[in-house]
Every structure is written in C-alpha cells, then in structure tokens.
Amino acid sequence: MVNLSLKQRIPPLENGDRLTRYEFERRYQAMPRHQKAELIEGVVYLASPLRFESHAEPHGHVIGWLWTYQIATPGVRLGIEPTVRLDRDNEPQPDGVLLITPTSQGQSRLSSDDYIEGAPELVIEIAASSVAIDLHDKKKVYGRNGVKEYIVWQIFENKLDWFRLQQGEYVSLEVDADGIIKSQVFPGLWLSMSDLLAGNMPQVLAVLQLGLNSPEHQIFDEYLASVYFLGNETGAFDCTIPNNPAKRII
Q1: Which end of the chain is more exposed for a tag (fewer CB within 10 A), N or C?
Q2: Helix (H) or strand (E) holding 123
Q3: CA gap 43, 40 in Å, rounded
Q4: What secondary structure, in 3-state letters, does 199-225 show?
Q5: Is pTM beyond 0.90 here?
Q6: Spacing of C-alpha 35 from chain mean position
C-alpha cells in the first residue's frame, strides 16, 4: 500500500520530464530555490553546476556590457537569468535579457507574480558549444515566440553568434568594416566581438561608448523618453512622437 503522504507529495522535477507549463511551475515552486530549471518544448532541463572560466566569467562580461547600455538608455531594462513565460510548453531562464518596458511600447510585460510574460526584445545565452540546446531547440523557441535578437556565445569554440529575426527566421548580423556588430533593435548597442572573445573589456566598453554617443542612440533615447500611449476601446495602444504626426511602433 502506498503511503498517503507520498501520494499527496508534489513530485520533484527530473531531467527529461514532459510537462505542461502549469505542472512545471507547480513542481518548480516546491523545489529548493537554488535549483535552476527550464521547460523547453515541454521537456524539463535541470542546470548543472556552473564553472567559472567557461560560464561565470564570460557571463559577467556580457552582463557588464549590457548594464552599461541599459543605464544610459531609459525605457530599457536588463535581467539576469529571469524566468520567461513564452507559451504553453516553454519557460526558459536565459542568461540575460534586454527588454523595452511596456510603457515604452515593449513587447513583453511583468505578470502579477513578477515573471516576464512574452518575448523580450533581446536574449543572451552562454553555451558550451555549437551542439548545445541554445543553438537548436531554444533558438527555434525564441524565434517562434518573437525574440527579435538572440546572442549565443559558444565558449569552447570561442565564437559568438548574433541573430536578428527577419520574417520568422533568424539571420546572422555581420561585423562591419571596423569589426563591430550593431544591434538593429537597440540603436547604439555596439559590440567589438574580437575584443569580447579576447577578454579585452576596456575596449569592449570603449566601443560601446561610441555607440552610446552616436546620433542613432540619441534619437532612440529621445523616442523612448517621449513616447505616449493612447488607449482605445480594444485595449490596444498607439505611440506618438511629439511634433511628429507619424506613428511608429518598435
């Protein structure tokens, strides 16, 4: 006979479990808070312990780069390993997200229980290599749900891919003649990829500062600061730039 208390106990999450997002969250909330878990295409993935040079340090470098951009760009927020509710079968915890706030016409929002719902504009993952889930199932999930830009840093191959969503498919952003990749969603978010891969963070931040001083970042900054919302009877919103009759949706 099965003990009644065992029958009533919430089962722990296990690698490979196939669950709905509702059941995933129910089991996740009953687990120790330090355990990281993701639901990708209905399959549970539990994180392994993280090494320093092959994850924690490069993660810190990327976050430092994004944080520098975020503090110079009101209307943009940065998150580290947030839970993101994308759809019924997918609830990842990406290594970093950069998002435009709802009040600035961003495409995601915070739920009443403080989780991101919907796709952040930019997602970053630190991956072991090109065979990792980040470049396969996760990439498909992020693209299908409308993540506009996706960065994957493959540590063991010392390679970084920066994708831009175009017509439902990810295409790679290429470095320009100066060796810089420039975001198409966040004007002024510039990256010297060779310096990042070499660990030359002073130069990474120097190049980013050039982006922050660029005319396109100034225009974007002014736009986010001046955007207005006009609700209509359907609950939708328009954003209007003062002194400009045109309406622009990011």
Answers
A1: N
A2: strand 122-127
A3: 5
A4: CCHHHHHHHHHHHHCCHHHHHHHHHHH
A5: no
A6: 20
Amino acid at 219: I
List phi, psi (to 5°) of 163. Answer: -105, 145
Predicted confidence (pLDDT) per residue in 34-55, tens digit: 678 888 888 888 888 888 988 9
pLDDT in tens, 154-195: 999 999 999 999 999 999 999 999 999 999 999 999 999 999
Position 201: which residue type?
M
CB atoms within 10 A of CB 193: 19
Nearest Cα neighbor of 152 from 174, 165, 133 is 133
How do 116-117 and 84-85 pair as beta strands? parallel
CB distance 54 to 156 below 8 Å: yes
